[in-house]
Amino acid sequence: MREIHCEQIKAAVKDCVLKANLELPGDIVIALQEAAEKEESPRARSLMKIMLDNAEMAIQQQMAVCQDTGLVAVTICMGQDVHIVGGDISEAVNAGIRDGYREGWFRQSVVSDPLERINSGDNTPAVIHYEVSAGDHFSITVFPKGAGSENMGQLTMLKPSQGLEGVREFVVKVVKEAGGNACPPLVVGVGIGGNMEMAAYMAKKALLRPVDRRHPKNELAALEIELLGLVNQLGLGPQGLGGESTALAVNIETYPTHIACLPVAVSLSCHATRRSSCEL
Ligand code: SF4
Known about the structure:
Layout: E1 2-5, H1 6-22, H2 26-38, H3 42-61, E2 71-79, E3 82-85, H4 89-104, E4 127-133, E5 138-145, H5 147-150, E6 154-158, H6 163-178, E7 186-193, H7 196-207, H8 218-232, E8 247-255, E9 262-269, E10 276-279
Parallel strand pairs: 1-3, 2-4, 7-8
Antiparallel strand pairs: 2-5, 5-10, 6-9, 7-9
Helix pairs in contact: 1-4, 2-3
The structure holds iron/sulfur cluster (SF4).
């Protein structure tokens, strides 16, 4: 049994919080550069150049990539042979969030109660997911997500007879309705199958996959490429001001479902798609 101390978890979460908010992931930077090179519209090209300059300045000046430093989703993937010592694992994660947001001077956007709406003052609690499997591994992924893009996500319970065509129509509809509100160019996360909550979780999980990596199943990889083409034909472009670069990628994750169900969730992530992972 491998022991991991809560102090290690807290320190690792803090480091991930700082990295995620200060440095756009390399795959997103490259995708923005490639989209800017391919883009026909001078305004769209110029907007993506500003986004890239902004990402560079965030690193140089150690300032957040975007003012909305988000509600943080944390995924802990751990082996069942890991024993957490020195406290409560969820409290350690939240302590790391608290320390990272204070040290980075990042905006604290979490309200403790969705109806009373009083700011918790330290950007906690995070939304924490635990995935437990065999072994003694332990990894942490920190995914801060702003409300501009989060508010534009949607979920639908399709009839199985609506099939692939229903999935296509729904994904394109969600991106179209989001317009410029989700700050495109987007990463489009699509969760297909499971039940309501699993479809939503799959859509979020899809956003954690680098945009240059297609789904390992050939038919889903082909669907990702097809959907990317369809959403880019919408012409929304960067910040919804026109152009071909509405999305950088469509990432799909699936899960087994009921014979009478076809849930589909779409989670949109903005040009400031931020994530950071580490292993202990
Ligand atoms: S959607 Fe993204 S880029 Fe736009 S304000 Fe929110 S966090 Fe920032």
